[in-house]
Amino acid sequence: MRLVDTHVHINFDSFDADRDEVARAWRQAGVAHLVHSCVDPSEFGKIQAIAHRYPEVSMAVGLHPLDMDKWVEGETADQIATLAASEPKVVAIGEMGLDFFKANNKETQQSAFIAQLKVAQALDLPVIIHCREAATEMAALLKDFFQVHGPVAGVMHCWTGSPQETQQFLDLGFFISFSGIVTFKSATQVSASAQMVPSDRILIETDCPFLSPVPQRKEKRNQPAFVRHVAEHVAVLRGIPLSELAIQTTQNAQRLFRLPDELSYPDEQPK
């Protein structure tokens, strides 16, 4: 069985002391590939080093909506584009998006988001979208962008929206990725969304080091190996075997991020 963790942040300092052990754990758990997201282009060098140390790690580059103090109009988008074009292991732009939970900079977030959509379109790369308390505005912005510039592929990562909100992004062609939140008892609307996403659009992730899933909630640091718990829970919600869910989500990740057809660990033959 092979799983793909489509959203990790193992560049964070909390992994510096034992990153190799964490890698061994994800391999033992059946995680054959990881997509390493980026919250700030300044992280690119460290993420790139990780991606080259662990062959099963692909990477993205972008600016998170909560880091708008680092956005420079006319410069940051060019920096993201240059970095993305410089590294074959870059498979997406992001994470990027809108976060209106405590926002007083909505216009800047929207401007940065549109600029990064243009970068992704120019480079023919999918986007990794962060969307918090902004589903209505996000869907409207994407519709307007698509009408003017054409569609962009991508994923709504760490999705917490209702089934109605989920359908808006499915209608726009997006994949939907579920994190450890889907395992929480209180996450009823997330569970409902996980049940209704078509089998060819569903993805799984950890968003580590955040959001450790049940039964690892006491672990302060989430890690890629725990994506198996997300997969197990989603499989139960959907009433299918774990093996089937693994095949579906792995094939979806391969299609969206253009990952290799055969995923295997270093020095390991595909089974």
From TrEMBL:
This is D-aminoacyl-tRNA deacylase. Its EC number is 3.1.1.96. The lineage of its organism: Bacteria, Bacillati, Cyanobacteriota, Cyanophyceae, Leptolyngbyales. One of its GO terms (biological process) is D-amino acid catabolic process. NCBIfam families: YchF/TatD family DNA exonuclease (TIGR00010). Its cofactor is a divalent metal cation. Catalyzes the hydrolysis of D-tyrosyl-tRNA(Tyr). Binds 2 divalent metal cations per subunit. Keywords: Hydrolase, Metal-binding. Signal peptide: none annotated. InterPro entries: Deacylase_DTD3, DNase_TatD-rel_CS, Metal_Hydrolase, TatD-like, TatD/YcfH-like. It is an enzyme of class 3 (hydrolase). One of its GO terms (molecular function) is DNA nuclease activity. Pfam families: TatD_DNase. It catalyses: D-tyrosyl-tRNA(Tyr) + H2O = D-tyrosine + tRNA(Tyr); a D-aminoacyl-tRNA + H2O = a tRNA + a D-alpha-amino acid + H(+). HAMAP family: Deacylase_DTD3 (MF_02048). A divalent metal cation 1 binds at residues 7, 9, 95, 207. One of its GO terms (cellular component) is cytosol. A divalent metal cation 2 binds at residues 95, 130, 157. Belongs to the metallo-dependent hydrolases superfamily. TatD-type hydrolase family. DTD3 subfamily. It comes from Phormidesmis priestleyi.
